[in-house]
Amino acid sequence: MAAPALERPTTPSGTQTVTIAKALNMGLRASLERDPKVLIMGEDVGKLGGVFRITDGLQKDFGEHRVLDTPLAESGIIGTAIGLAIRGYRPVCEIQFDGFIFPGFDQIISQLAKLHYRSQGKVKVPIVVRVPFGGGIGAVEHHSESPESLFAHIAGLKVVSCSNPVDAYWMLQQAIECDDPVLFFEPKRRYYEKAELDTSLDPLPLLSSRVVRPGSAVTVAAYGPMVRTCLDAATAAAEDGLDLEVVDLRALSPLDLGPVFESVRRTGRLVLVSEAPSESSVTSEIASRVQQECFYSLEAPVLRATGFDTPYPPSKLEEGFLPDLDRVLDVVDRSLAY
Length: 338
Description:
This protein is an alpha/beta fold. The chain has helices spanning about 20-35, 60, 75-85, 105-110, 115-120, 150, 165-175, 225-240, 260-265, 280-295, 320, 325-335; strands spanning about 15-20, 40, 65-70, 90-95, 130-135, 160, 180-185, 195-200, 210-215, 220, 245-250, 250-255, 270-275, 305.
């Protein structure tokens, strides 16, 4: 079920420089203003404004009945949101850290993902589950996970990830407007990176990928926190005369691989980058689909730079775990060596 076109928010239009965190806050504010049925719920989202301050000031402006501090119970948060959605509300649930989502896993995959199908379309559950995900912040265990592939595998869920303030602002509003449940993965290590946001421009469709840097030598595709890493790698490669094309996937389920196929047919090479482990992942699915659709265009196997197939390490070791500019460029070199 596609998200409808958004009405213009009452927030002032025009260009401003904002962080991803601020853009998410602005998107939530616009949705709360637009629709009185939108609710925000989660641990510390009200008075504190969230541990990353994404919901800062919203309870003060919209009240405790629309921005709700909940108990520390993810299963209860998701289950309560499902009941509210059945009654016509549009809950936005915050999972404080990625690794905390698993107590609510059963509610998400057994109830949230299935209700529309189980009721033959009679019951809609327009719920957004916001998940700060990924590493790079020096956190302790359970605070730096990348569980997106688990949810991308579940029919009935839409899974998306923003990588910049513009997408953060628009994609979150589009997810809230969508009548289907959406898992919204936010790159926490990028929360405070800045870019220009012009709220007067039209957004891209929610479930679409896009080329963020044109090139001709190798296609490099990523999502969430790794998009910035790939753009930095492309800048470094350009100093050596190598022209990388970077694709931001944006939607992980359903995947929009049209721009990826088109790019690979031009470059003949594809490198996929993610923080998540490589086995049974979003990147492995994309590799399979590209091999199927672009076989005669490929000049090299589809290669990947990902996290390792191990539990996320202690913070002192995460720099070696996460793909960085050098690892991306090393895989690009391997692709060009074929």
